[in-house]
Amino acid sequence: MQRWTASDIPDRGGSTAVVTGANGGLGLVTARELARHGARVVLACRDEQRGKEAETRIRAEVPDAELHLARLDLADLSSVREFARAHRSYTGGRLDLLVNNAGVMALPHRRTVDGFEMQFGVNHLGHFALTGLLLPDLLAAPAARVVTVSSFLHALANVDLHDLGSDSRYRRWIAYARSKSANLLFTHELSRRLYRAGRDVLAAAAHPGYAATNLQTAGPRMEGRRSAERVMELGNRLLAQPAEAGALPVLFAATAPGARPDGFYGPGPLGLRGAPRKSWRAPWTRDDTAGELLWAASERLTGVGYGTSGI
């Protein structure tokens, strides 16, 4: 794969995208570059004030950006449903791209509004529900895409189908890895279902490698572990690539003609930094049986079924 940059993004004029977690980091860069190339972009953010600040930042760089700010809290399924009910007023009834970007990392044990372990609830279940609720509009658009952001750290742990909430023993990094494996398993199963149904929607995944965002420091800050926060800050300064580079695999999966169904893209060649390319993934993220079981459990837990969409 030749070196790919944001300048290679095709013209997105006339298209509409929803980007979750667009208030900072990868999400902000992704939203900005999509808007720069002509897309109408819905900034789906939990914190409305930070969302407004992101909107201002994007407009400063892309004065003619067509943006809409909307509240979305993936830790609350009622907020996900409310966003889905209202999204047509944001999108004009057209949705070409959904970027499931928002996430949390290595938090102390917390639960969502609906009682799910926070990392699994936000990173996987919230996006599973959102995708299902928005899928009818994606299916109605020509060549729409769903891009879900995972992590190279998914390799630390497979999804535990018997303990999805890590209730038996909570280890923050293992819980994070399980949620990121769930992102890939969801993409795999969604892609399989779309293919079987003959639907023209591409489901792919991406990861940023080691990118400097506030994701790494949020967990230590919540617990007041200042030394751990400083280690993460130091790693971001010395080792990580900037968010602008980390967002490139996401943008590649979202826009490049070369992206493939169930593809997983990240920086190369070692997966930490560099231009986007096809990424290694753990074999359990392509397990058809596990994908079906996770899908069934996700429908049951969220109350969001995909059957009415015909996949």
From TrEMBL:
Has the keyword Oxidoreductase been applied to this entry? yes
Quote the SUPFAM superfamilies the UniProt record gives: NAD(P)-binding Rossmann-fold domains (SSF51735)
Q: What InterPro entries does the record point to?
A: NAD(P)-bd_dom_sf, SDR_fam
Q: Which Pfam families match?
A: adh_short (PF00106)
The answer to keyword Oxidoreductase applying to this record is: yes
Sorted alphabetically, the keyword list is: Oxidoreductase
Q: In terms of domain of life, where is this protein from? A: Bacteria
Q: Which NCBIfam families match?
A: PRK06197.1 (NF004846)
Q: Which PANTHER family match?
A: PHOSPHATIDYLINOSITOL-GLYCAN BIOSYNTHESIS CLASS F PROTEIN (PTHR43157:SF31), PHOSPHATIDYLINOSITOL-GLYCAN BIOSYNTHESIS CLASS F PROTEIN-RELATED (PTHR43157)
Q: Which family does it belong to?
A: Belongs to the short-chain dehydrogenases/reductases (SDR) family.
Protein name, UniProt field = SDR family NAD(P)-dependent oxidoreductase
State the organism named in the record. Answer: Streptomyces lycii
